[in-house]
Fold L-histidine N(Alpha)-methyltransferase.
Amino acid sequence: MLKPEIEDGEASLADPQFRADVLDGLSRRPRAIPARWFYDRRGSELFEAITDLPEYYPTRTETALLREICPALGDMIGRGRAVVEFGSGSSTKTPVLLGCIEPAAYVPIDISGDFLRQSSAALAARFPGLPVHPVEADFLKPVALPAEVRTLPKLGFFPGSTIGNMAPEGAVDLLRAMKRWLGDGATLLIGMDCIKDPSVLVPAYDDAAGVTAAFNLNLLERINRELDGTIPPAAFRHKALWNDERARIEMHLEAVEDVSFTVDGRRFTMAAGETLHTENSHKYGDRDARLLLAAGGWTPRRRWTDAEGRFALFLAEA
Ligand code: AVI
């Protein structure tokens, strides 16, 4: 995921950026904290559990779609590329892709070193003879690819609709940066979740078993643990809503009563009904997605969706 896992009891080692984002996010109106901070160890486990939920269609839909389009992908991409995966470690999707394109090398990029080493070792065992060059880095900052793949043509792989967690401006900046890092002749395979009826979208982010609620509320536990907070999680409830104007699911933590707490020695007060905005998950129609890719410097060549049109994979050229 986007952020490293943090062990329990590491309050003194809190990431300064986490502290700044939380204090700033609690002070601003409307209150908002970037979604990247969901992913401590517990948050990463809860996200894995989300991907198996009956209501959360994106992961299984994208994986099935990838399997289905494999032969076409093999034909279009050709062999001999270095596959560069952004936010690597999706244990099921990566082997599907690597199995159908005969890559020359695999470069997983992830901020979590432990996770990266584990998934790289598993991949190397599964594809003997494939050079694997893990890069421990935050791909929201400039990334240097390993010297071994510098002269190879690249295929960027950015599955999961992770691009949807960024505001469109940030998404465009990232696509442009990817184009610079991957170089001339690069190709990009990117997953984007499609706009659909809120009766499907909202339950995907507010499941009956309450796993997404636990994922959202875990942010408060993380703040308490790492930033010496006194937030009572029971004073908040998970809220997921579809913002039609911005074509995104929003997740919030809503105060169910007037609540006062401290974080890092600073006091904050929230009135009942006030929310802390914790995530956006943008959904893209066909044209929106093409415009986004074009603004990011990529020319869309092919779009595939599942039979129900829930999730799309785009192949684009630099
Ligand atoms: C990681 N990301 C693409 C997920 C999404 O669907 O936006 C994160 C998530 N949040 C709640 N459920 C899943």
Remarks:
- The longest strand covers residues 236-243.
